[in-house]
Batch of 2 targets.
Target 1
Amino acid sequence: VAAPTRTGEGAAPVRRRFPLWPAVVMGLVGLVDQVDVSVARGVLPILEDEWGLSDTELGAISSVFILVSAFATIPAGWVADRYRRTRVIGWTLLSWSGLILLSATAVNYVNLLVARALMGIGQSVDDPASTSYLADSYPARMRARVFSFQQVSFFLGGGIGLALGGWIGETWGWRWAFAVVGVPGALVALAVFRLREPRRGEA
């Protein structure tokens, strides 16, 4: 992707090229994020039958994530403004992988609820950091397209997570649904760690 720059006063605009790879990686971050969030909704009917959960308890599995994320988002923005964003996002993804595996090994409802709540902290850290990273990686004239690409990954991830949760849960059990979707997060984290960290306000 290219954007015009000037090499000196009175000089003709020169097309500076901006690599798509950072946008692709951040899109994958959003995809993994939403897959991990949505997979729980796909296995709710199975959990209801296995543990005899009420509608309130089932609803809490999804809502506790949102509540924790809402409270943690502002402090997470502070972190994103002050620390290397590729490391913040990468370590967050690795923690997601651990927490999603913790969900897979939950022995009771409370264990699963706590694991899902802790994942809410992870998403609140990731979103401000990835948005800030993209804003510094691409100039203003390109940002709307870059952010729209990231938004598409959110929608796709939500649908994929719900479908995978239902299908894997019915085929191999709800624990495998959590275990399988936890693996990609670690792989994407490796890609994030390898990204160049742009200067604040660089673009």
Note: The two ends are 13 Å apart (CA to CA).
Target 2
Amino acid sequence: GCQPEESPLSRAIITSVSGMEFAAQNAEPQTITVYADADWTVEAPDWVTVDVTSGSRTMDVTVSVGDNMRDGAIDNPKKDTIVFRGYNLLAHAYVIVSQAGDKFRDVPAVKASDILSMKDEDVVILDDVQVVAASTKGFVVADGTADVFVVSDEAVAVGDKVGVWGSKGTAEGLAVVAVCDKVEVTGNAAVTYPATTDITASINTYAPSKMEFVELTG
């Protein structure tokens, strides 16, 4: 009887790297090695150039990108995936490609309370907040809408009016600015603290959903 034709595509593909990073401008091409037991094809995002569209068994592949520019200025960072396709999904290999850029381009400033609903790695600009507390690991800023911890080793003082540029993250279940790229001090003023919440009786069960100003006695 008739037998179904065997696919020539590889049953197993491995690449020499799982990720590649390129500069925003004048990025040098990079070479990766594809290891396979048969034929394979390549699928890449439109801003990434791969010197082959298909291959067979073990081959070196060169990957390159153009300058990451828009309207004469560096554009936002880029990130996508090159897929080396084999016989089925189990045979595919994936390489994450990233290109540097200006992650703050076109990003509007937000209120501290907006950070509470952002996704991790979302870009954050706070342009009018005040430092209300500081520690060895960072500082707390507030703008009347919420208090947010900023992970940073910048030297700031309580009362400083600052601008903060970074990325949202999560720490101890709370929204924070986990990556702080820049802090700009614009002034200093006395801090007006809100009324405290006494958590002495609920210390064993206290589990806030956001940063709060509290007191306890013990």
Note: The CA atoms of residues 163 and 183 lie 6 Å apart.
